[in-house]
Amino acid sequence: MTATFDSREIKPGMTFVALKGEKADGRDFIPQALANGAARIIDGYDELDRAAKERRAALRATVIGVTGSAGKTTTKELLKAFFSRLGKTHATQGNFNNHIGLPLTILNCPDDADFLVLEMGSNHPGEIAHLCEIARPDVGVVTNVGTAHIEFFGSREGIAREKGTLLGAARKFGLVSRECFGLDLMPKERRIEVNPRDEEIAAAVAAVLPGDHNLSNASLAFAAARRFGLDAAGAAEALEGFALPGARWRRSSLGGVTCIDDSYNANPDSMIAALNAFAREPCDGRRIACLGDMLELGPESGEYHAAVFRHAKSLGLFTVAVGPLSSSCPSDRRFPDAEALKRAIRELARPGDVILLKASHGMNLSKVAEP
């Protein structure tokens, strides 16, 4: 790492990015950063953008951008795994995908990187265009178009236009599932439509990532890497031991109960995909879907939540609602928050049961899986 906005991480020769946030002003920590050996200070968001653009222009790496309503981080990690078979690859850490994270990722890209994989998030119109101005992607990957953050876009069509911006900005080509919603709203020039169920890698994907949605993510990532020379055998080798960071289908045991923590984030589309995968989980007892509130869904939020719970019931799952929005839906049990669920989890679940935790990150449902 060569640049950071945390003055405590500064070591001699590094760059300190001083940004004003909601809780603190990074400029207050410039003296500390200099005392720790900072060689450069980037003051403010505009200067951060300029520095990242300059760094991007100096890099020889091929830049792959990835966006979508769901599956961005999974696809980014798959792209990183596949492209690492082809050359030195640097990628966004975690889901550091916004107007701060993307420029910092570019600043921290090594000089000798062959590929740079950048996750691009957006919850307001125009944000993908701004990130593309900085990143100048050679390749663009759109995972899907759903209803995440629809409160700020007004419609799913608005989301499709926003995500499609990446395809239009990609200098070499852009990739999108041929089954993606809103294809007719996305730029057609240099657009490649991908089969979301690539049989060449299906078995290798199923061994490490459950669900059709993850096969779609992997098919997109493989389609990108294949155009730079990766074959199916190389992709399978790259998937050996593959694991996602954070609370993404993370397994643990709670007194004989298998817990699958997939609570890093959620929207109606990722909820449905997770439930479909969960319904196929091997189980000696009940499959218990603990579903928390999904945030930023706008005026149709109630119907989105109801649709998710209806789908869970159609799959024969025991449903647990967590939070005020979810608790308004028909379910087998209800809890006001994650703390209440955690206190009751050992009484609720029995050995042999499998539990799924799924909700927006702000619901803190991961704490249920903690010892």
Brief account:
The protein is of the alpha/beta class and 371 residues long.
Structural description of this entry:
The chain is of the alpha/beta class. It folds into three domains: 3-42, 3-Layer(aba) Sandwich (Udp-n-acetylmuramoylalanyl-d-glutamate--2,6- Diaminopimelate Ligase, Chain: A, domain 1), CATH 3.40.1390; 48-239, Mur-like, catalytic domain (UDP-N-acetylmuramoyl-L-alanine:D-glutamate ligase, 3-Layer(aba) Sandwich); 250-369, Protein-Tyrosine Phosphatase, Chain A (Alpha-Beta Complex). It has helices spanning 30-35, 45-58, 72-83, 101-107, 127-135, 150-153, 156-169, 202-206, 212-226, 232-239, 268-278, 301-314, 338-348; strands spanning 3-4, 15-18, 40-43, 62-67, 89-91, 115-119, 139-142, 173-177, 191-194, 250-254, 257-261, 287-292, 318-322, 333-335, 354-358. A six-stranded parallel β-sheet has the order 5-6-4-7-8-9, with helices on both faces. Strands 10-11-15-12-13-14 form a six-stranded mixed β-sheet, with helices on both faces. Strands 1-2-3 form a three-stranded parallel β-sheet. Strand 2, helix 1 (30-35) and strand 3 (40-43) form a beta-alpha-beta unit.
